[in-house]
Design brief:
single chain, 283 residues, alpha/beta, Rossmann fold, 7-stranded mixed sheet, 11 helices, globular, binds adenosine-5'-diphosphate, binds magnesium ion, DNA_Partitioning_ATPase, AAA_dom, Sporulation initiation inhibitor Soj
Amino acid sequence: MTTAPSALPEDTGRKTRVLVSTNGSAGSGKTTFASAVGYAAAARGKKVCFLPMDKQRDLSRLCGYDDPDSDEDLPTLYDVLDGICSLSEAVVPALNSKTKEVIPNLHLVLESRKLEHLEYKLAGETARELWLFRLLPELRGRFDIVIVDCPGDVKLATIGALIAGDEIIGCTKSQEKEARGLTELEDKITEIHRSYGHTGMRDSLDWVVIGEGVSNASQGKVYLDIEGQLREAYGSIVAKETVSDDVKVPEAYTAAQPVTLYSPKARAAVAYTKIGRQMKLYR
Ligand SMILES: Nc1ncnc2c1ncn2[C@@H]1O[C@H](COP(=O)(O)OP(=O)(O)O)[C@@H](O)[C@H]1O
Ligand SMILES: [Mg+2]
């Protein structure tokens, strides 16, 4: 297993913020948030590493790797769990899918279809919920920002991220299913914190990001109602900007690029860029 030596930034001892993009519900904007804000930060000079964990491998695809499993030379997160390489050895540069050029400052650990078997893989391990907590120190000091992109459930991958991360970002749409996913996530955080609070893990959500909202009632009052409920329930941790429904997001998915790279002036890209700024990830 070989990676370009230039792939991994040096450990300069810098402070690394580990953000966890999550919601127990699928299709809630987790990968869109992670890719958009991560690219925006990298474009502003921050060293960023994505750590996506979904068997669907969407974020790997948005970083120029269409099918990481098909190339045996490419390390994946699953190889790290298999002990084939360390987490830092598995870091690869993100690529612009269109030009195939390396995107400066942006890195990732590739996903694998085999992440589906994570539960079984770690079944025999002591304190297996701490799997990511044990690995993450390898990346700290090298990056300004690590963004963990969770799958759409709160099983072992997500639990590991909730324990290991520094800030929990609940991504939701202004729709019932995704908003409910957020409530379930909060309950789960409370439950996990009871056992793992001593690790220093967060005991609640740090941010709520509302994606795919609408700007006026004619597009559907129910969206505005749910957004209102979310803002009331979560108060100041809700990102000021609601990311509106924007066709550039699915277009960017088709082009296999973060929306902030694909169309930086698109409404959704501008909103995500502002959200990253509100989170003080960059100026
Ligand atoms: N602001 C938006 N406008 C339009 N479509 C969006 C927007 N945000 C997300 N989507 C679409 O919603 C789907 C799910 O988003 P995604 O970020 O992949 O969710 P998750 O990672 O939580 O499963 C994608 O097909 C994406 O194109
Ligand atoms: Mg996703």
